[in-house]
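Q: what does this look like with N-carbamoyl-L-aspartate bound?
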Amino acid sequence: MTAPAKRVSHLLSTQDLSAEEAILVLDTAEELARLSDRPIKKLPTLRGRTVVNLFFEDSTRTRISFETAAKRLSADVINFSAKGSSVSKGESLKDTALTLEAMGADAVVVRHWASGGAYRLAHAGWIRGAVINAGDGTHEHPTQALLDAYTLRRRLGSLTGRRVAIVGDVLHSRVARSNVHLLATLGAQVTLVGPPTLLPLGVESWPCESSYELDPVLPKCDAVMMLRVQRERMNEAFFPTEREYSRRYGLQAGRMAALPEHAVVMHPGPMNRGLEISAEVADSVRSTVTEQVANGVSVRMAVLYLLLGGSEPAFGKEEEAAGR
Ligand code: NCD
């Protein structure tokens, strides 16, 4: 990310972000969120710049969110869905990248099925634009973690010393990986909860704790983040039955009652209602699910702004220009 003193031209992982850089994104998003309350939501900041959404995997909210964010900053947006390509992975990505370069893409938002796909695109020398990782395999999804941190900060204030449980299919979750690193950087204490089969090997070296039991963790949480059971990434049985999983690791109203009164319930979506989260909990006042989606636009605007825009935020001036 762009820090006041240095410019890094990609956002690939939350591990690359310092606390100052992460806070700069959150503060910038806060400024930009004020726009959403106004009749004219657009800023001219990225007028004439091209943002390409390059999605090799399915997505609803992330792609729409990036598209909305780019359009609110007046960028030209090209949506490129590469799903179904029959070319082998490396070649396909290279050919596509060369095409994007020829079209003059200033930023490429990439979702790829391979862990490391975004790194490859950023560092292979095929394109000059900024690369933003919108999810690479089971590796990272940094803008999701940033929007989660933003949501938490709005609900709870500073994240220092806050306790966050991340529950469920951690093994397949790029959201969990990005969140563990970002939350640790921001001073929160994270506990990963799930059955042994769904906690990754080597989790002891991550900057967090882990537990196979949910019930003892809940009373100490300021936030609990439920993860989707990613059936599409499971080619073997990771738990006996869905009923059993839901009984041990699902968040239902009864279990939610064990949370402190101020605690919030998060989910990155899409949800398996009735599996990892009950409909009642998903729709409860403690749930931040739709807030997370709305906050995603502001956070992605901030990321695009900081990677592509000027070095000095000048929102006031630009709002005036937009309002003309
Ligand atoms: C997540 C993803 O794609 O990694 N979804 C999202 O971006 N909102 C989580 C998931 O698919 O479960």
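The mean pLDDT is 90. The chain has eleven helices and nine strands.
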